[in-house]
Amino acid sequence: MDLGLTGKTALVVGGGRGIGRATVRLLAQEGAHVAVFSRTASEVDDAAAEVRAIGRKAFAASVDVLDRPKFHAAFDAAQSALGAPSVLVWCVAPFWKPTRLQHLPDEELDQLLATDLSAALVACRRALDGMLELQFGRLVLVGSLVSQVGIAGGTAYAAAKAGLEGAVRALSVDYARRGITANVVSPGFTASERLEQRLAGDPEQREKLVRHTTRRALVTPAEVAEAIVFLCSTRAAAITGTVLEVTAGAHLNTLW
Ligand SMILES: NC(=O)c1ccc[n+]([C@@H]2O[C@H](COP(=O)([O-])OP(=O)(O)OC[C@H]3O[C@@H](n4cnc5c(N)ncnc54)[C@H](OP(=O)(O)O)[C@@H]3O)[C@@H](O)[C@H]2O)c1
Question: How many Å lie between the centroid of ligand 1 and the Cα of residue 27?
Fold first, then answer.
């Protein structure tokens, strides 16, 4: 199936590793030129080198999405190098540790919402200008299953992810007639390097997460990337304002 991505420019924010990196790879394999943003320079450089090795153009920027002037400068530079992105994938993972709201300091609460919600909307706003000119755009924001199910100590993280879901519904109303769709991909526990490291010393917890899935195996970053890239494609023109869950059934299997 041709996804219609050949020659399109994509920006993956949070594309240095994990789900974002898998998405960068797949977008390039499907023919897109890809700009990659995240803080760790070696990781964005590696991701861009992989895109070039696949035969597409790439741009890498080491940038913290909380540093707005630097983010806007990186966006301008990516646009000069590759053209205006018609695909934006938001895949930033904010740092959070499970904390009940009563113990969550103001600064941590603000930082989490700023990283995972406000910065995502700023990126969408930046990308919309070019998309409106092109009369084509795909906004795909990575949410989380925690917006649907309660997670201990995850009030702020869940609120940010639920905010992304509300945002894509409104965006789809505002921009669908201009050829721009907006969707959330909502993963369950996904075996990214980060999660695997966390679970490495805790096989019991790993087994518990695996048992929650209906297929008895965690989701992989590549599987989440497949869903993201499909929503980025011309094939997904009629899908907007939705939440696509990629959970391996994790929330269906809680009773046994
Ligand atoms: N893995 C899971 O089980 C799971 C489950 C549900 C939802 N999700 C969601 O899936 C997305 C990707 O998660 P992942 O597991 O692939 O995480 P990951 O492997 O840690 O990757 C996250 C990416 O975000 C970048 N990032 C983090 N903070 C940033 C900042 N302030 N500015 C710029 N870049 C930043 C990281 O690079 P730097 O640190 O170098 O900046 C990295 O490239 C996130 O939205 C996460 O909430 C993950």
Answer: 18
Closest listed residue to residue 145, CA positions, set 48, 11, 17, 246: 246
What are the residues whose beta carbons fall under 8 Å from the beta carbon of 214, sequence distance 6 or more?
Answer: 248, 249, 250, 252, 253
Q: Which two tokens stand for residue 242?
A: 């939705």
**CA nearest 86: which of 199, 234, 213?**
234
Which residue lies with its CA nearest to atom 45 of ligand 1? 93
Residue nearest to atom 18 of ligand 1 (CA): 18
Q: Atom 2 in ligand 1: which residue has the minimum CA distance?
A: 190
Report the predicted TM-score, pTM, of the whole model to 2 decimal places.
Answer: 0.97
Q: Which amino acid is at 164?
A: L
Q: Which residues are catalytic?
A: 157
Closest atom of ligand 1 to 142 CA is 45
d(CA 80, CA 64): 20
Region 171-188 average pLDDT: 98
Whether the CB of 40 sits within 6 Å of ligand 1: yes
Domain-by-domain residue ranges, the chain? 9-246
Instruction: Kindly report, residue by residue over 191-244, the tens digit of the pLDDT.
Output: 999 899 989 989 999 999 999 999 999 999 999 999 999 999 999 999 999 999
Distance CA(25)–CA(41), nearest Å, equals 17
Q: Is the CB of 219 under 6 A from ligand 1?
A: no
Could you say which architecture CATH assigns to the domain 9-246? 3-Layer(aba) Sandwich (3.40)
> 156 to each of 37, 103, 169, how far by Cα in Å?
24, 12, 20
